[in-house]
Amino acid sequence: MYHDQGHIPLKVVGFVYNHEKKAWDAVSGVNITLGLPIIRVSVDHGTAFDQAGTGTASELSLRNSIEYAVMFANNRQS
Questions:
Q1: How do residues 16-75 score in pLDDT, each as one tens digit?
Q2: Residue 60 burial (CB < 10 Å; 0-12/13-18/19+)?
Q3: How far is CA 53 from CA 45, 50, 56, 68, in A?
């Protein structure tokens, strides 16, 4: 399986529908790399240059990435 093929199901599940706006709002996926000696997580979307400066970008995926990194760090200490 190729990298992009693996992202398809994750991105389908990760889309968030905003019922108030009646529109797709954000992608909440997190990219996690396992097997490294360091904790490595990142947002699971591109740079969103098309949204830069428009006030429409969402920080949801970034927040989720940080939460996962903290969770992994706490579990590593136990």
A1: 788 888 887 766 778 889 899 999 998 877 777 888 899 887 788 889 899 999 999 999
A2: middle
A3: 17, 9, 8, 27
